[in-house]
Specification:
By secondary structure, the chain is α/β, with parallel strands linked by helices. It folds into two domains: 132 residues, CBS-domain (Roll); 125 residues, Rossmann fold. Helix content is 29%, strand content 20%. It has eight helices and 13 strands. The strands form four sheets. A six-stranded parallel sheet has the order 7-10-6-11-12-13, with helices on one face. Strands 1-5-4 form a three-stranded antiparallel sheet. Strands 2-3 form a two-stranded antiparallel sheet. Helix 5 crosses helix 8. The longest helix is centred in the middle third of the chain and has 17 residues. The protein is elongated and about 85 Å long.
Length: 304
Amino acid sequence: MIRVADIMTPNPRTAEPTNSVGTAIRIMQEGGFHHLPVVREGQLVGIVHAHDIRRSLGRVSLPQKAEFAPEMWDAVPLDRVMRAVDVTATPDTPVSDVVHLMKERSITGIPVVEDNRLVGIVTVRDVLDLTEHLLGQFAEQRIPPVVCFVGRSKSGKTTLIERLVPELRTRGYRVGVLKHHFHPTFIDQEGKDTWRYERVGASPVAIVSAVQTAVFHQTKKEPPIDVVIAEHFANVDIVLVDGYRWADKPRIEVHRSERSEHLLCPTEDIIALVSDRKWDVPCPRFELDDIEGIADFLEKRFLK
């Protein structure tokens, strides 16, 4: 877990309520930042942002051109424009919680306090710097090849993947499978203990046994497939995906004639077709039971 202490600016510059707004502007200009905590005897009493100064122009009867001219603000005390602090974090607060607060309250900086004393500040810039760092790590991380098996319901995708996994494993490959659940419903079974914990707000919820571990995370929107692969499948040789038709990944369509007379995807969008019917397509076609042939194709294209 990444904590606020990992990304915050420690011991930030501060001002006092009796300082002038001009002094605050000078401090922010010298430091190249837009948030300035206001303290009295070490205790956090407020915060001022460049936006607060802009909004205060009319209220303190200064001309518009005075927006960031410090000398025009030297007679205005800081407590005239600062705002009260209603959101703070601690050094141990998860960064994910801070991001949620920033989004929910439309704020760009949060003071960090410990034992009622200011110890740092975390801003949107800090979060973006972290994001840039993590994306750089993600780009360098080994991502296994991913193949999406797509097709209409009951076309045989699950059965095909179920038979491909042991075939590839006998050839010495580590195989992961990702199932895309199209409907926005809970995956856990209703009434189970883990489901009950999730329903009251716990996230994540994990269940562990001697033979299997499962972790359930509540999400507000579906995570990108690349994020899921990077987080959970980095140690396999290939990932077979059931679904994710719209993902920007190689697709193999599975077609069964009794389900439809037509293919689901344009033939130029698939790398192979598995069907019980012959088609004139510009890509390899395999019979539904040609597990060895499909495995040969995957091995040659993605694993050799």
